[in-house]
Predict the 3D structure of the following.
Amino acid sequence: MRCVFTLSALLMASIFADAQHTIVTSESAFGKHTLFEDSKSPRKTLKSADGRTVEIEGEPGYSYSIIDECRIQVKYKIFLAYTDTPEKGIEDDMLLQIGTNKTKYYSTLLHSFDSLMQAQASPDVHILLAHANPVYFHNALYTDMVTGKTNFVCRFATEDFEYTEIPPTIDWTLSEETKDILGYTCTKATGGFRGRTYEAWFTEEIPVSTGPWKLRGLPGTILSAKDSEGLCGFEAVSVKKGEGVIERPEYLYFRISRDKYYSMLKQFFNAPLRFTSMHMSRAPGIVITPPAKETPLRSVVQLER
Amino acid sequence: MSSIRIGIIEVIALLSLLSSPLSAQEVSGRVTDAKSGEALVGAIVRSLNGEGETVGYVMTGKDGRFAIQAGKDVSAIKIALLGYKEKTLTPPFEKSLMISLESEDLRIKESVVQARKVQMAGDTTTYNVKALTTRDDLVLGDVLKRIPGIEVTSSGHLKVDGRDLGKFYVNGKDVLEGNYNLATRKLSVDAVKKVEVMRNHQYIKMLRGMQESDQAAVNIVLDEKAKGRVNAIGAFGGGYQAGRPYVPNSESATAFYLGDGLSSVLDAGFDASGKPSRGITYYRLPLSDNRYSIQSELNMASAKAPLSDSRSLFNRSFDSRTVNTLTPSEDVKLGATFSYSWDERNSSDSRISVYHFEDRPDKTITRIEDRIERNAKMTGKISYSDNSPKHYISDALFADMGKGLGNAAVSGDYNLGQRGERKSWDINNNLGALFKTGSGRALGVKSYTQLSGFAEGLDILTGPQTQDISSSAIFEDLSLSDISRVRGDFSFSLQPVLKWTLFERSSSLRGMTEDEIPGRKEDKSRASYMTGGLDWSVFYRKGRFSASVRGNLHYDRASYGSYKTGRFLSDESVGLKYETGRVMASAGGGVSTSRPDIQDLGSVLILYDYDGLRRGQESLSFLPERYVQGELVLREPVSGWYLRTNSRFNKTESLLGGRDVLENYILSYNTDETVGHGTWVSSAEITKGLYSINGKISARVVYNRSSSTLMQNGVSTGYVSKLLSPSVELSTSPLNFWNITGSAAMSFFLTEAGGGHVGKTMSATASVTNSFYLSERISSGVVTDIFHNSTINKTTVFSDAFVTWKGPKKIRLRLQASNLLNMREYSYVSISPLMETTYSYSIRPLSVKISADWTF
C-alpha cells in the first residue's frame, strides 16, 4: 500500500511541477487562502495560537493552512452497513480533532485506493472492484462550532471537491439513563437528523458541544451514536489530549452542492471505472478504459438520506 | 421522568399551578473570559433539577450571550467550557447574568478502549497478537496454538481446520515459503502485531475471481518496531545427567531481518540433549509424538505414548538454514535457501512380537536392536516468481546431497550384525507459468523434472552376506492447463498431463545361498512408467453454495522386469459445499479405478526411501478405491467457539501387501493379499478460545473402523479393528498466579480376527504442566506425563520441574530438572489383527540443566 501512496504523491507532484510558480487564491468557509505557493521545501514551520512552534510536512506543491490548535482528539470506530447484507459492513477509524472554535473529522485509514490504482493496470478489473470498499480516505469534515457552518471535502479519482452548508439543528431529547464510556459518565439522548434517528451518548465531562461527523448540539461531547435501525454507528475508542494543530490541505477544490456530492457518489458506486475515467484531469497520460458493462461496487448505507 | 421534553399541556398545567409571575422565568446573560473580558462562544449553559439531572441547556452565541428557562424545578445553573473552570449558580437567579469564567489547564482523562482481540470480515479473521499474548509466550507459535481451528505441529508447521496451511505471508509477502516454521518456532512474539487467517485463499493473483481455492493462508503483520531491523533469539544451556552423555547441552541462534525489499533468516543450532535434527528424517516408530492419529490400513493401536524425543533420544544434532528473499516489486520475488544438517544417534530398543495364526500355535519372536547412525544432508534452492494480476511465472531449482552411516546389532531369536553406508543426491526443477488470454480465460504450463541417485552398501557382519544397491531415476511431470470462466456461475479447467519415469536399479548380493534367496545373486532391474491423459474439472458457484465435479482419463503404461501393463484408467469425484463466514459444510465422494500403485514405486523412485525397498515393496499393485466424505465446520471467532466434525468412508478392492524380507523367510509366508478393505473414520472437535484469560479448551473424539479380508495360503479370513479415542486439551489460568496447560487422551482399541482371536487394549495418557508465578519475574512449575496401558498393565510416570527467571533486557534463565523419578526404561504395546508387539526403550536418566535465552 505504501508504494502506491507514494506513486500518487509523485503523480501529483509531476503534474504540478510546471505550476510551481502559480499563485491561486480561493475563498472557502474559513476565509481567503493562497494555494500552490512555491514551496521548495516540503516542510514548513508554523506558529500555533498559543505560541508553540509546529513543523508540518506537506505534499510537494501543496500548502496547508492551520485551522485551529488541536486540544482534544477523539478516535471513533465507524460502522456502515452494506445495503445487501445489513449485518455486515465496512469499518473505519475516524478521528475528531477538537479545537477552540473549530473541529475536523476525518478517516485515518486507506481503503481501496490501491486496488483502484491496480485497476488501471489490468483490464479485468471488475473482479477486483467487486471486493473493494468505497473510497473514503481524503474525506474530511470541518465544522465551525461558532457559526455551525460545515465544510466537507472529498476526492474522486484525481479531483478534489467541497461543499459548504449549515446542517439543520438536531432536536435532541435527553434521558435519565447514564453509562460509562472510556471512563466518562455519559447520558443518553435521542434525536433525528436527515432521515435517521440516532441514539447518542454524550459526556458533560468534555464540555464542548460536538461529536462525530455532523452530530452535535448536546451539552457535551458525543462518544457513541448509532441509528435506530443499526445500519450505522460511531463508537469512541480513545480520548487523548490533542497534539499540534488542525490543518486543512489546500488542494484546488471544485465547489459543488451537497446534493451534487451524493449524486456523484452514487455514480461512482454504479460505475466506478467509468466515473474515475471522467475525473482524471489531474493525471494526464493515465488512461482508464472501462469495460462495456461494469459491476457496481457493493453499496453501503449513506449517513444522510 | 423519562423525558425532559415539555409538551404544551404540561406547560399550561405548570403555569396554572404557579402563583408567582417569576416562577416560569427566563434567565439570560453573557459569558466572558475572566482575564481578557472576551466573549466566550459555545459555552454550555445547563439548568439542573434537585437530583442534578439536566432539564435544559443552551450554548452561548457569537457574542457570548444566552437565554435559558429556569423554572421552580431548577435548582442550579452550570456554565462549562473546555479549558475553563466550571461555574455553578444557585437560585434566586438574576434575570440578567454576567458570568466570567477562569481559564484552567485542560483536564482530560486519557483513555483508550481495550484493543479488540479478534475481528472477522468475510473470509479473513484477524487476531490482535498484542492483546492475546500471555506472560509465558516467547515465540509466535505460543500464541498461534491457542487460536481455535489452528494446530501447530511439532515441526512448527500449521494446520487450519485440519488441513495443511497453504501460504504463510509476512506483511503480505511470501518470503519464507516452506520454511515458515522458522517464524512459528523462533520469531519473537513482540515482533508481531496481528495475525490474519484467510480461508479460501487463492495465492495466484491472476486466478482470483477465476478459480476458487479451499486452502487457508496466514499473514502476519509485523510490529512497527520489528520492521527493517534484526529480530533474533539466542539460546544456550548445559547441565549434568546421571548417565551417558554426562553433559547434555544445546546452543542455538536465529535471526530475522524482515525488511521491505529484502528478507533474510539465519538459523543454526547444535543439540546434545535429545532434540532431533530437523533436516534429517528417519523412519520413525510411531512413538515419538504426543498426539493421536489414525492409520487407516490394518490398524495398529494408536494410543500414542507421551514419549517425546527429549526423553528417549541419545543423539547429537546440528542444523543450519538460511532463507533469503528479495522482493524488488509487489509481484516479483527472488529466493535463495541453503541448509546443512547432521545427526548422530545411538539407539537401543527391544521388540517382542507375538504372531497369531489360524492353523498353528502362536509364535513369539524377540528382537533387540542396538544402532549407531550418522547422517548428514545439504540442500540448496534458488527460485524466481512473478505473481501479478496478469500472469504467474515461477521456477525453483533444488538440489540436495546426503550421506549416512549405520551400524546395527540385532540379538534375540536371531542374531544379526549389520553395517550400512549410503549416499544420495537429487536435483529437481519446478517450473510453472499461467497467462491470461482473454476475459476469463487462462492458459498455463507446469513441468516438474527430477534426477536422483542413490547408493547403499550393506554388510551383514555375522555372516558372509553383503549387498550393494545403487539406483538412479529420472522423472518428468508435464502438464498444460486451460482454465476458463464460461459464464458468471460456471468455470472449468482442462489439463492434459504427461508423466514419465525411468528407474534403474542394480543390486548385487553376495554370500547368500540359493535356498535363502533363489535366483537373486545379481540383479539389475529397470522400471519405466508413463501416463498420459486429461484432467478436467467443472465448478459452479451460486452465492454461498458451490459444486464441483472432477475427473481424469489416462492411459498408463508400466513395465517392471518382465511385468508389462498398459491400460485406460479414469477417476471421478464430486463435491458440494455451502459456506458463509461462520459455517462451512461440505460433502463429496469419488471413484478411482485401478491404477498402478505409483506411490510405492514413487516412494522408491523419487524419495530413494531405503526402508521402502527393505520392506520389499517392489511390485506394482492396484488400488481401486471408492470414498464418501462429509465435513462441517462452525466457527464464531470473536467469541472463540469452534466446532469441526468430519467423516470419511473408503472402500478398496484389492491391495497387494508388501513382503517383509526378513520375516518372510523365517515364517515361510508367501504373499499376503487382502481382498476387500474398508475404512471408516469419523472425528469431531469442539474448541472454545478463552480470550479473557488468553486460554483455550478443546475436546475431540475420533472413531475408526477398519475391516479387511486376508488371503493366507489360500484361506480367506476377515479382520476387523475398531478404535475410539476421546481427548481433551486445555490451556487456562484458574487463578491469577497459576497457569495450567495440558492434554489427556484415552484410546479403546478392539480387533477381531474372523474365526477366533480377539485383541483388546486400552491406553490412557495425560500430559500436564502447572506453572506458578511467584513474582513478576520468577515462575516455577511441574510437568507430569502419565501413560497407562491395559495389556501390560503398567503405568509410567515422567516428571520434570523448572524455575524460570525473566531478567532485564529480555533475558530469560531457566533451571530444569528432567525425569525426576529417574525412569530408565519404557515399555509400550501395540496390537494388530495379526500380532501384538511390546516395544521397550531406554530413557534418558535424571538430569539437571540450566539454560538462557535472549531476545533482541
